[in-house]
Write a structure and sequence with these properties.
This is NAD(P)H-dependent FMN reductase. The protein is 45% helix and 15% strand. With 203 residues, the chain is of the alpha/beta class. The chain has one domain: Rossmann fold (3-Layer(aba) Sandwich). α3 packs across α4.
């Protein structure tokens, strides 16, 4: 698909995380579709909980710039997150909160300009029947309203996720596999269209 690059961000990376498993599966399916992917480990950023006093005293952590650079370097983003009490994980929200605090300098753009008009897709997994659908609904609103990202309508919530994968981490249900491909195809198509529009403006 014209060498589209998708940044995949799992919202949980604990041992045996179902969402990390789904993110890895989505990455493999993306390669089948001819897409490039990068899996990002938000835990490695070791970002502190956002605190205005901390920001005032020490500034935005340099690790937040790594997230900004990763988003700037991709054509689209895929967030795969469980729900904690119906909401997206603090790991995801805190990382994006810090991203929003990055201000412009001579060498870097502000954080919010990096996310503006960036295509993003959502997936989730849960042992429950709803597949963490509630977290996706909140995350859709959060990314659209606060970060001006373009969230594609297609999304995938994997219910009974603890029973959904085989020992190799592959989804056993053909409909679920197709749902993953549908989300990936949709976000890649949007990213490709936006890239083509930008190129047309330059000529």
């Amino acid at each position: 698909m014209d060498d589209i690059h998708i940044l995949i961000i799992p919202g949980s990376l604990r041992s045996d995380s179902l969402n990390a498993t789904l993110a890895a599966f989505a990455s493999r399916q993306a390669h089948v579709l001819g897409l490039k992917t990068t899996l990002m480990d938000l835990r490695r950023l070791r970002l502190p909980i956002y605190d205005g006093d901390l920001e005032a005293s020490t500034g935005v952590p340099k690790e937040a710039l790594q997230l900004q650079q990763a988003i700037a370097g991709c054509d689209a983003v895929l967030v795969v997150t469980p729900e904690y009490n119906g909401f997206p994980t603090p790991l995801v929200i805190n990382a994006f909160d810090w991203l929003s605090r990055i201000t412009a300098t001579e060498s870097q753009a502000p954080g919010l300009s990096t996310t503006a008009n960036k295509p993003v897709a959502l997936m989730s997994a849960s042992p429950g029947p709803g597949g963490a659908l509630r977290s996706m609904n909140f995350l859709r609103q959060y990314l659209q309203m606060a970060f001006q990202m373009i969230v594609v309508p297609q999304q995938f919530a994997l219910g009974r996720a603890h029973e959904a994968f085989d020992e190799a981490g592959e989804l056993k249900d053909a409909r679920s596999v197709q749902s993953v491909k549908t989300v990936l195809t949709a976000v890649a198509a949007l990213a490709g269209a936006l890239r083509a529009a930008r190129q047309a403006e330059q000529h």
